[in-house]
User: Which sequence fits this backbone?
């Protein structure tokens, strides 16, 4: 059923301010949620602080046992979880199942790896301090505020939530106003396996509720969303010197080199650009194809993409545009590309039929078009012919965004990957890095900074705590007023001998 959802979920006032989350496929109400005020958020963070002490005191093994129990519960409720994600985002059942599978795999990795990555370990004490034992551990920060988007309402915030919890922090999570139910589902399931204290709580509402997380005194804010909001979050956190992790948007390129498996590259471009209706931060938006294989690539992409249809049924190829105002952004980028002389080889402006957008593939689009320079976040691809893979690398690196990238090449994949200015690259596959829990995920430039996932993602929610212990007196000790000129002479002689060559 085609309908136009309101620009923002309606606010329902029944004494306590509430709002409804809607199914973007039908406009039906999925659930009602409280609009948490600034005072509510600050209280949630205050309560979370005592919960943080309990959680941290459980230690790595105690936390792993609870996180494993949470994972098993999520697996048990997989169908319910998937249906809720589909209802609040409109995404197809299989796109939602893919998201749930990724959540569970990452949760498993974070729980399993925290002790090894963050636990106390010995560090070499070096030449001058040879008489000291040195050790290092990574301690939890306390309470982490997580602010999440709607496009992957479980996988994206869980990249912060699961890793922050595994590191020993309490979490207060503000989900997108479009997907509050998914946040509450995760927190309620966690509460069943950790009933003692509110270690992981959810506050719902609009942008003001998110802003209240920034002013609440949390020990870190992990934000995922648009670059525009990311800048506001960073500014709000600056006053209290609250550290921030900022995961923002992208305009990710896919490079098809002269020696690529063209069929596989075309299939990956179509899937990477269109699954989840193109609403993927690291989805493929720009494609640079070497002239030698360009015609074949465009033919294969056209053939494949023109068969895909969005819809509201669970087995649709992909779902609607979740956030109604994004439809205008998609239409404006397509219009800009066409106005500047671009051509649509699949679809066109008529493909924009809210809440659905059918696949649109554009060619001959000038590099200055917003369809090339700005995040479109729709099921669109812009394909650009280049002389060779080297020109593709130059153009791929030409934007301020730098989240992920894809390279298709039989012989030069890793060499080309190394030259791309971005956080992650998949060679001969698309988005593979996001599914590897041990790899860090995050961008550079306008795509943000800091990392979720992997060892870096665990350390992101900790501070390093270093200790030295003097084991015995040194023959040469420079850190005393009794050191004398002879000691210093010997030390400098040693430094020259060992490090001067
Ligand atoms: P937004 O920036 O609009 O919102 C993100 C979150 O911030 C929402 O929870 C929002 O609440 C909240 N928020 C809004 N205003 C403020 C404020 N002033 N202070 C604090 N929080 C605030 O992004 P979207 O939800 O539209 O998500 C899409 C974007 O997310 C895309 O740009 C996408 O590329 C990016 N993204 C990045 C990922 C990454 O890992 N790099 C992964 C997934 C998405 P509310 O919704 O209630 O307004």
Assistant:
């Amino acid at each position: 059923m085609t309908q136009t959802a309101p620009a923002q979920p309606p606010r329902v006032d029944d004494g306590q301010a509430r709002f409804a989350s809607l199914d973007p496929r039908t406009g039906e109400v999925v659930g009602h949620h409280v609009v948490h005020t600034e005072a509510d958020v600050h209280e949630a963070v205050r309560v979370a602080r005592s919960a943080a002490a309990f959680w941290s005191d459980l230690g790595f093994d105690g936390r792993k046992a609870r996180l494993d129990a949470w994972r098993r519960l999520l697996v048990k409720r997989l169908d319910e979880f998937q249906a809720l994600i589909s209802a609040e985002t409109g995404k197809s059942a299989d796109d939602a199942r893919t998201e749930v599978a990724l959540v569970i795999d990452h949760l498993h990795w974070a729980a399993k790896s925290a002790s090894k990555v963050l636990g106390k370990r010995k560090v070499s004490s070096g030449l001058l301090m040879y008489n000291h034992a040195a050790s290092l551990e990574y301690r939890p920060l306390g309470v982490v505020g997580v602010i999440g988007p709607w496009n992957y309402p479980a996988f994206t915030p869980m990249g912060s939530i699961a890793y922050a919890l595994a590191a020993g922090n309490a979490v207060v999570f503000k989900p997108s106003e479009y997907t509050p139910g998914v946040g509450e589902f995760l927190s309620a399931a966690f509460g069943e396996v950790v009933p003692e204290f509110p270690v992981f709580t959810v506050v719902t509402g609009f942008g003001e509720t998110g802003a209240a997380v920034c002013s609440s005194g949390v020990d870190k804010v992990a934000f995922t969303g648009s670059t525009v909001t990311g800048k506001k979050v960073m500014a709000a956190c600056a006053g209290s010197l609250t550290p921030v992790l900022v995961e923002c948007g992208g305009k990710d390129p896919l490079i098809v080199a002269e020696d690529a498996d063209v069929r596989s590259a075309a299939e990956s471009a179509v899937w990477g650009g269109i699954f989840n209706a193109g609403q993927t931060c690291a989805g493929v938006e720009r494609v640079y194809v070497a002239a030698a294989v360009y015609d074949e690539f465009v033919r294969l992409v056209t053939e494949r993409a023109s068969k895909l249809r969005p819809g509201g049924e669970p087995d649709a190829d992909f779902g609607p545009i979740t956030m109604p105002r994004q439809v205008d952004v998609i239409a404006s980028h397509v219009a800009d590309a066409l106005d500047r002389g671009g051509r649509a080889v699949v679809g066109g402006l008529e493909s924009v039929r809210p809440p659905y957008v059918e696949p649109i593939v554009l060619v001959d689009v000038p590099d200055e078009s917003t369809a090339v320079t700005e995040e479109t976040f729709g099921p669109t691809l812009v394909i650009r012919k280049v002389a060779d893979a080297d020109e593709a690398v130059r153009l791929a690196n030409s934007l301020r965004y730098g989240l992920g990238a894809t390279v298709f090449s039989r012989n030069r994949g890793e060499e080309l990957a190394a030259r791309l200015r971005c956080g992650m690259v998949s060679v001969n596959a698309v988005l593979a890095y996001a599914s590897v829990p041990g790899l860090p995920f995050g961008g550079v430039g306008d795509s943000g900074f800091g990392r979720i996932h992997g060892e870096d993602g665990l350390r992101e929610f900790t501070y390093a705590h270093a200790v030295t212990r003097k084991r015995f007196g040194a023959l040469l000790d420079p850190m005393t007023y009794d050191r004398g000129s002879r000691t210093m002479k010997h030390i400098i002689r040693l430094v020259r001998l060992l490090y001067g060559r």
User: Anything to note?
Assistant: DSSP finds 16 helices and 23 strands in the chain.
